[in-house]
Specification:
3 helices; 16 strands; 60% strand; single chain; globular; mainly beta; 16-stranded antiparallel barrel
Length: 341
């Protein structure tokens, strides 16, 4: 029942807000409705062979302004179909937030449920991809509820957020606070973005050491810890190649954790590209590793195919080593509808 009530309340609230804006000589503009279909065939060990709709979703985005200035924009993501359950589902669905513009030179304010601005996660959209960044290990969540400021000071962009620290819920008064600073450089024909992130939180989720990239079926094994994280990330556009990296160090309940992630993407043409990545994460109960490769071929501007392979393994301190080999074939189709206002 909650899955139905919450989206309904959200939609009604947005409609009421739109009505209030209209009475204040503001109007809704730039409406976009974005359905998306994601079919995946999976095989490997220990994953079972499957063919199903991985993500069926619809995004609603619109802006409110007075004809000269945009005052706010809104994003709402609805889930139509997915086999994801529990925390794995919560990591991917659903964005629901409003962004208010406070004026030229002032920060924007975001309120709702949004991607935590920590490390490369803040700017690298993993939601629809096969190869995932290690956010499930580094901070234990992707989407969280709260408030965020986004702005710039001099040459630096910044994100400052305060959220619940446990996705859609809150664990025993927990919280997460994060600060991200980013600066860009143009180096001849290259582009370099360097980011620094700090996160501190209480009662945040931690998953046991395991070889899987996203924690499916592990809800009962989740532990909660007070976390500190410091991350340095690089986004380097070197010619046509894109190289990304992230280094994270920190503590879970005063016990050291650290990890690394490296990503390389090479486009052979507009239609076809190749991605390679590697990751490592060490925490109190063990260390996990992953190697992955993915090829992507666009069928047109709105659809395409991806094929990926991942070899992952883990060394728990108090259990035998585990490994996983994962093959995934993805077909996706995106749509955009922009009704006239």
């Amino acid at each position: 029942m909650k899955n139905i009530v919450r989206p309904t309340v959200v939609v009604v609230s947005l409609l009421l807000l739109s009505a209030n804006c209209a009475s204040a000589e503001l109007k809704v503009s730039a409406v976009e409705i974005l359905p998306r279909l994601d079919l995946r065939a999976k095989a490997g060990q220990p994953a079972a062979e499957t063919l199903r709709v991985q993500q069926g979703e619809i995004d609603l985005r619109f802006s409110v302004g007075d004809g000269e200035k945009e005052w706010a924009n809104f994003a709402l993501q609805g889930v139509l179909a997915t086999p994801m359950t529990g925390r794995a589902r919560q990591m991917h669905f659903s964005n629901f937030y409003a962004v208010g513009n406070l004026g030229v030179g002032r920060p924007k304010v975001k309120v709702g449920q949004f991607v935590v601005p920590f490390g490369t996660l803040a700017e690298f959209a993993t939601h629809a991809l096969l190869l995932q960044t290690p956010y499930a290990r580094t901070i234990g969540l992707r989407l969280d509820r709260g408030v965020e400021l986004e702005g710039f000071v001099g040459d630096w962009d910044y994100w400052l957020s305060a959220t619940s620290g446990d996705g859609r819920t809150r664990q025993n008064g927990g919280y997460a606070a994060s600060l991200r600073l980013v600066r860009d450089w143009e180096l001849g024909d290259d582009f370099l973005r360097l980011g620094f992130s700090y996160l501190e939180g209480n009662n945040m989720p931690t998953f046991p050491t395991n070889p899987m990239p996203v924690p499916m079926g592990m809800d009962e094994m989740v532990a909660f810890a007070d976390k500190r994280r410091l991350a340095v990330d690089v986004d380097w556009l070197r010619g046509i190649d894109n190289i990304r990296a992230e280094l994270v160090v920190g503590q879970d309940d005063s016990k050291r954790v650290d990890g690394q992630w490296l990503y390389y993407n090479h486009p052979f043409s507009y239609e076809t590209d190749l991605t390679l990545q590697a990751d490592r994460w060490r925490q109190e109960d063990g260390t996990s590793y992953g190697l992955g490769a993915e090829t992507h071929h666009r069928l047109d501007d709105w659809s395409g195919l991806r094929l990926s392979y991942e070899h992952r393994w883990a060394h728990p301190n108090l259990a035998s080593d585990r490994s996983a080999d994962l093959w995934t074939l993805q077909y996706y189709r995106e749509y955009v509808w922009s009704p006239d206002i």
